[in-house]
Amino acid sequence: MECPSINCNRVTVHSHSSTDNNKPKNVNGRKPYHDIFTCGSLNVCGLRRRLLFPEVNELVQKYDIFCVTETKLDDLDLINISGYEFYSQTRKQKFLRKSGGMGVFIRKSLASYISIVQSDSDYVFWFRLNKRLTGTREDVIFGVVYIPPSASRFYNADETDLFEIELQSTCINNKYVVLMGDFNARTGTVPDISDADDFLMDHFDLQFTPHDLINISSLLLQLNMSVQRSSKDAVLTNEGKNLLDMCKSSNLCILNGRCGEDKDIRNFTFRNTSVIDYNIVSAEMLTYVENFDISDLDPLFTDGHSLLTSTLRFENICKTKTQKIADYIRKARANRSGAKIKPQV
């Protein structure tokens, strides 16, 4: 269920009026579109105190979409950055001092294309980017994720189960899904994808939705991304195993150590010792990922977490690559169903 972008459940929107020259383009009278989205995600460990420093404001203003976790806000906190609207979801669990929470800064010129998606989970904040802006066939669904460490008093197994249910439902009903945030899960180098097996599918008459039938390995190879992701963090925790299972069951791919500038670097994301922050996308979102990078930051910005940056490109120059992937998916589905492939005009 969608909610209005002004208020939804525990969600608060903070608006700051200003002139923004970076407006979506309008070509030949068509509806506006936005070519490239620069998306950042960072565990800020307390947003209000970070924004006291101009450098933090300047960092946010480099992005179209900037996701933050551990905001440590309540419903009375006011957050303003010139040229941006800020949407936040506070922790529903009762607390003596502010903790947890997630939010997103949206460039003001893009905010009218954002709507908040209702969530019952304390661990994810969903919002929808309208397809009119991206030119995709469906809206793009973003999830800002913060799962507390399993040893934390704020960790709740029921909330984790609720998040998994919402994630699975979201991926079944939407092709384009992006997750960004702090999962507090170490996944080592264990595979996060599981391609559909034709023999098992036919033998057991397994039923999947159409976009579950994509062979992710083939997609990755066509996009020059690594089938086997790599990482400097070789540790696998129970939380990591759970995250990997969620990826496999919902056709999701971890971008860390797989593509862009991080493909060969395989950076840590927390205090140069572990990988617990991730950008994760659905299989059919892969074709729009142009770059992924992990950057270390000064303690001014966070308490040890790295900044994750994904560049999503929906520009016309991607049409050839997108068409190739679409053709591959179409052929794969046709081969599985035994239907004849119609020529594309």
**Whole-number average pLDDT?**
84
Structure summary, number of beta strands:
15
- Which word captures the global form? globular
Q: What distance lies between the first and last C-alpha atoms, to the nearest angstrom?
A: 36 Å
The largest beta-sheet arranges its strands as: 2-3-6-7-5-4-15-14
Given as residue ranges, the uncertain stretches (5+ residues, pLDDT < 50) are 1-9, 27-31, 198-213, 341-345
Sketch the major β-sheet. Answer: 8 strands, mixed
Quaternary structure annotation: single chain
Radius of gyration: 20 Å
Total count of helical runs of at least 4 residues = 9
SSE topology string: EEEEHHEEEEEHEHEHHHEHEEEH
Helix content: 10-25%
Question: What fraction strand?
Answer: 15-25%
Structural class: alpha+beta
Description:
The protein is an alpha+beta fold. 23% of the residues lie in helices and 23% in strands. It has 9 helices and 15 strands. The protein has helices spanning 47-50, 54-60, 131-134, 157-173, 198-203, 216-222, 238-250, 262-265, 319-337, and strands spanning 2-3, 7-8, 11-15, 36-43, 65-69, 84-89, 102-107, 114-117, 124-129, 140-146, 176-182, 252-254, 277-282, 289-295, 307-313. The protein has an 8-stranded mixed sheet, with no helix packed on it. Strands 1-8-9-10-11-13-12 form a 7-stranded mixed sheet. β8 and β9 form a beta hairpin. The relative contact order is 0.14. Mean pLDDT is 84; it is low at 1-9, 27-31, 198-213 and 341-345.
